[in-house]
Amino acid sequence: MSNSHLFLKSGFPRAPLQNGLGRYVCQLQRITLKFCKNNGSSRGMRDFIENHLVDFAKENPGIVVYVKPRRHRTPVLVGEYLNGEREWLSCRNSTQDEISKWIDLLKTQNGSSSSLRLRKMWHTDVPSIQGPWTPFMLRSPDALSQKYPSSEASKPLDAPTTATEKLIELFKQQKLEDEADISKKHAK
């Protein structure tokens, strides 16, 4: 078992700003492309900047794009999100297509998915006062003490009458009352 989770922040999954209930708000606030002008491992980053960066900036006006040349360093993508989190990705020896896919991934994330150890896989803003539901919640307490296989447990439960069956019963009662009224009228 790994102990790598000990150094991660702990929390609950949560949609930031209730994203998706109203209009969609892109959580990526700014992206920084760091690269070397001469290093061979930055070739894909340089190609992306020359060919696709202007189109990306036009398509996403809500994301601020910074380009930062650095000497003798490996290319890096840094995404900063509205919640203050930063996502750092190394793009060493990546092609321009791979870099565009990494940027799309940063654009669609909310910034807290990979750097957070989830305590639960679900979260609600309004927790239940009654506690969590279990399959044994509405069972009879007698079922807990039974030994299985049991002939009593295998019997079908008395199903409540359906609305259709109740209507048929009411119709039959009404028909009997009408016949009784008719026989009283004829008896007079």
TrEMBL record:
Its main location: mitochondrion. SUPFAM superfamilies: Thioredoxin-like. Keywords: Mitochondrion, Ribonucleoprotein, Ribosomal protein. GO terms for molecular function: structural constituent of ribosome. GO terms for cellular component: mitochondrial large ribosomal subunit. Residues 37-110 form the Ribosomal protein/NADH dehydrogenase domain. It is found in: Mitochondrion. Pfam families: L51_S25_CI-B8. The keyword Ribonucleoprotein applies. GO terms for biological process: mitochondrial translation. InterPro entries: Ribosomal_mL43, Ribosomal_mL43/mS25/NADH_DH, Thioredoxin-like_sf. Belongs to the mitochondrion-specific ribosomal protein mL43 family. This is Large ribosomal subunit protein mL43. It comes from Drosophila willistoni.
